Amino acid sequence: MSPQDQVLSAPVVIIRCSPISRAILLIVLLLHISGFISLVEAAESPLPTAEILFSKLDSLYRRLRSVRVVAADRNETFNPPKSFPHLIIRWHDLYFDDDNLQVRTDWQYDDKEDWWRPKQTSSTPLSADDLGSFDGITCCYRPHGEYSYTEIIKPSKEKKLPYPISYAAYSVPRALNSFYFPFLSVGRAWNSSDSPTLANSLLLDRLHEIDYQRWDVVGRDSIDGKDAIKVTVSLSLESAKFTLEKHSGTLECWDVLRVWFSDDQHNFPIRIETDRRFIYNGAEIRIEYPGDGRPGPVLIAGDYINYGGDLWYPASGKQINYTLEQSDINNGPTLDDLVSDGLQQGFWTNAANFAPTTTRTWKVTTIEDLASGTNLWVEPPLDALFYNVNLDIRRIVGKSEEESNKILGIEIPVRNELHVNKSNKWLFLLCNAIIAVIVTVWFAVKGLRKAR
Fold first, then answer.
1. Strand segments (E) across 98-224
2. Are strands 283-288 and 347-349 parallel, antiparallel or unpaired?
3. Helical H runs in 182-325?
4. H/E segment holding residue 314
5. 240 to each of 127, 253, 260, how far by Cα in Å?
């Protein structure tokens, strides 16, 4: 039989097989076809460039310039100092219109299962008439005006104060860096941290601030059981160079972010770690960590919700800050040890103990567009305590200075340029007496000289 006849007769062999054998052969054939298609898809799916990954973050950031957000954050501190709370949960109603801001915040120090559910919320920005209806503190910011920032507090009933609202106004801009929600504080006029530390800012915000030309798309990877694209982002333009004692050449070190983006059409960040990148004689020494700790913060984002088009916002996540255990500070390996391990096995295991210091968890329950031009500034209502912080002046809104001072119990001291404090009375009289004696003696001496 010719080869051609053998090929043509192959289907006949399959047809003459038993039903079970035929099913098995069909499954094997389908698996081979499926595997081939997967290989083709993988080959036809190139890695996104750093510019594409950055552009998606930047598009989301620009979309969030005018937005309303209802969110909560849960901040846990491990081994806090005395009188410092171990846990604080805060609920926020946030309104952003470019650089204008209104945020109402309430809080508690006790944990609860559904901690992200707010006690109160408002579907519209607060006005002066609404201030007495909400507990907590309301903050407003505007880039222009006599006062740029205000803190409004409704005092508790237990204090029995002679005013229903406390309204503190600042004429000098004040930095607000306490909202730990991705991309909401970036680029705002009231966020004056041009170079925030890694510990007090979200790594997602730091990532957006770094030029994508410093992003290095490493390749495909998996993290936390998810397919991902790994990217190394340099935090510094130049490396730190170290001279070694036991090895020739120079060891270079960069502070970097290790970022994992989801390997799908969305490409959103799912994990960010702070790390260091070591290069010795042109070859990178990979750093491995046996535990969860890292030399700096670690951010894990999830529950991405669609915010229109191909924009996805991280509705939940957490950032954990670590610190090196005291016992490992002076007992760590040397740079020569790092290079020796790198030359032998291609990587170095950082076995140091990194303990968590704080964990910040966020949860966004509402995010929606806000009409541009919405008024977010609140004027002080009648009978409120108005406190000009920069001038240290207090008054009651709608009352005269005299009435305000009476309500607040402020006594205006009598000012007299000739007034002498009782404690200095005898010193004052003694000085006058000495001066009188000197003058009398001077005239007496002058008279005697003329008589001679």
1. 100-108, 137-141, 149-153, 166-170, 215-223
2. parallel
3. 203-209
4. strand 312-324
5. 53, 5, 25
Which structure tokens are listed for 255? 């502070």
Contacts of 233 (CB under 8 A, 6+ apart): 207, 210, 214, 215, 216, 256, 257, 258, 259
CB 47 within 8 A of CB 220: yes
Dihedral (Cα; 17, 23, 28, 29), 10-degree rounding: 80
Tokens of 223: 């993290």
| pLDDT top residue among 448 and 421 | 448
DSSP string over 317-365: EEEEEEEE-HHHHSSPPPHHHHHHHHHHHSEEE----EEEEEEEEEEEE
Minimal CA–CA distance to 271: which of 320, 236, 306?
320
Structure tokens at 54: 């950055």
Residues 189-241: pLDDT tens digits? Answer: 777 554 444 445 789 999 998 999 999 999 999 998 999 999 999 998 889 99
For the whole model, what pTM was predicted? Answer: 0.76
**Distances, alpha carbon 162 to alpha carbons 156, 260, 305, 392, 396, in Å:** 12, 55, 46, 19, 10
| Residue 448: half-sphere exposure toward Cβ, Cα within 13 Å | 6
- Farthest CA pair distance, the chain: 163
pLDDT value, residue 80: 82
Q: How many CA atoms lie within 13 A of 67 on its CB side?
A: 21
- pLDDT in the model for residue 37: 45
- Name the one residue in this structure whose structure tokens are 């491990």: 78
Nearest to residue 92, comparing CAs of 116, 76, 67, 127? 116
Q: Number of C-alpha atoms within 13 angstroms, CB side, residue 158?
A: 0
Beta carbons of 138 and 130 less than 8 angstroms apart: no
